[in-house]
Amino acid sequence: MFHKLILWYHFLSKKRLNPITSDPDGNLWFTENLVNEIGKISPKTGSITEYVVPTNNAYPIDITRRPNGNLWFTEQLGKKIGEISPSTGIITEYNFPDNVADPIGIVAAPDSNLWSLTRMKSVKYLPQQVSLLICQYTACQAFP
């Protein structure tokens, strides 16, 4: 039944849902790049809540969950990654340096750091230090 709700929302909303991840409470989270939002579906109630990404036309693409429960997403056109708290819905954004374009994919590594894929580069984000490592092939460079 629940998968039918997701399919119905996806095809009727025309908001272009992207990858789905879950939070510790079992809610499903997804990006809606055509409307610049992060969405949440509650399997318990079927309710849908949407949160507007603060940067206009950021084009959120991918979303993942860190072990602490917060969700992280990429903003392809905004050149940022964002963090959203499932309990409050508050979004915090982090800029990428100018030489890093179009963050697309994002994944939480077992060590709780985040990796994002961009064109020709990968980016390791260290949330505890609020810093980035920009990697191209085998060399990495720190970004404050």
Rg (CA only): 15 Å
Largest sheet: 5 strands, antiparallel
Briefly note the structural class of the backbone.
mainly beta
Query: What's the end-to-end separation, in Å?
Result: 46 Å
CATH architecture: 7 Propeller
Mean pLDDT: 78
Query: How much beta, percentage-wise?
Result: over 45%
**Overall form:** globular
Quaternary state of this entry equals: single chain
* Biggest sheet: strand arrangement: 9-10-11-12-13
Regions with pLDDT < 50 over 5+ consecutive residues? 1-5
Give the CATH class. Mainly Beta
Order of helices and strands: HEEEEEEEEEEEEE
Brief overview, please?
The protein has 144 residues and is mainly beta.
Write a structural description.
The protein is mainly beta and 144 residues long. The chain has one domain: Methylamine Dehydrogenase, Chain H. Helices cover 8% and strands 47% of the residues. The chain has 1 helix and 13 strands. It has one helix at residues 2-13; strands at residues 17-22, 28-32, 37-41, 48-52, 60-65, 71-75, 80-84, 91-95, 105-108, 114-118, 121-126, 131-136, 139-143. A 5-stranded antiparallel sheet has the order 9-10-11-12-13, with no helix packed on it. A hairpin with a 6-residue loop joins strand 7 (80-84) and strand 8 (91-95). The chain starts with a helix and ends with a strand. Mean pLDDT is 78; it is low at 1-5.
